[in-house]
Amino acid sequence: MTNIPEYSPRAMSTIDKLISPRQRKALDPSSHSPLYYQLYSLLKNLILNGTLANGALMPTEQQLSEAFDVSRITAKRAMDELAAENLVERRRGKGSHVIFKYTPGPVKAPLVGMLQEIESMARQTEVRLLELDKLKPPAEVREEFALDAGDTALRMVRVRSRDGEPFGYYDSWTVGLQKKPTARQLTSTPRLEIFRTQGLNITHVKQTLSAVSAPEDVAAALNIKPGTPLLSMVRRSYDAKEQLRDLMHVLYNPEHFQYQMDLTIDEI
């Protein structure tokens, strides 16, 4: 079992809602990139995607050092890089605050999906759970759910396979569940069934399709080369009151997955 670095209660209160245990273990001393740069890159992404909003107080160097099991010098250099790019402002005695202002990108038109097909595929494929944590979502996700700045949501990261061949990388945020599902449930039961069991009934789904190049972490999970073209699908699931309950981004390897629609004339 891999140990997660221990850190003080003060650090936990600041960092736990921002960074998952998997991310805290992501820094690799054997990588060609220095540790300070890996930490800087992780924090920069949290700022650019709005997880750390304009004006937010950054974790201290001591908190970062304890949370990521790195030296204070490494943590300081990562923060110095953020300050050099005008992403944070450092004030003696007042800490470091985010000065970058996140601006959401345009929303693309959705494509209506079929709930029955979603659940059927879940039953016919295998799933490997990479992450299951209650975290503070990025600003774009908070805005979609209409969450307050301090609210958390359930994040799930999974890889789906068919006959041992991984074909899809699923990264989702969910609100409205009465309790956190177990890892065992998520690897044996379709999420829609888990939702219904807890009284969360999804009535329709909207989907947006596009194409992207595989990032390194996704490429590793799908056993493909970084930069491989992938089918990207953003799926928004709503309850009967038209409230968004689940937001999922799926990346499919087109060599092992194709999205097909069969519509009658009344549906066109």
Automatic annotation (TrEMBL):
Keyword RNA-binding in annotation: no
UniProt xrefs under Pfam families: GntR, UTRA
Entry keyword Secreted: no
Top-level lineage group: Bacteria
Domain HTH gntR-type: 33-101
Alphabetically ordered keywords of this record: DNA-binding, Transcription, Transcription regulation
SMART domains (alphabetical): HTH_GNTR, UTRA
UniProt name for this protein: GntR family transcriptional regulator
Source species: Microbulbifer bruguierae
